[in-house]
Write a structure and sequence with these properties.
It contains 4 helices and no strands. It is mainly α. The protein has one domain: Orthogonal Bundle (Non-ribosomal Peptide Synthetase Peptidyl Carrier Protein, Chain A). Keywords: Phosphopantetheine, Phosphoprotein. This is Polyketide synthase. It comes from Streptomyces acidicola.
Length: 99
């Protein structure tokens, strides 16, 4: 099972909704679950997300969205909803800084 290489947010500015979907897909892959089982307001630790998966998630976010994040980002923003909101802010500040 793998997440498609094409990113649906690649040609548009990512929204909290599109990032939430991307995160749910990615986390479901790590946890060998269906993305529909991953709820945006449930702490990721409750699903069994461990430090190895959290670091992998951080690396995937950095690679796919060209961000530099603290390795603790999944613990600092422990739900998909919180993490997606943080990523939107980071991407917006990056866009603002590059123009």
């Amino acid at each position: 099972m793998s997440v498609p290489a094409t990113d649906p947010t690649a040609n548009t500015e990512p929204t909290a909704e599109s990032l939430s979907s991307w995160l749910a897909d990615r986390i479901a892959l790590y946890l060998q679950r269906s993305p529909s089982e991953i709820q945006p307001t449930v702490p990721l630790a409750e699903y069994g997300l461990d430090s190895v998966a959290a670091l992998s998630l951080c690396g995937d976010i950095e690679e796919d969205f060209d961000l530099v994040l603290e390795p603790t980002v999944a613990w600092d923003y422990p739900t998909i909803e919180a993490l997606a909101g943080h990523l939107v802010e980071e991407l917006q500040s990056m866009e603002g800084g590059s123009r």
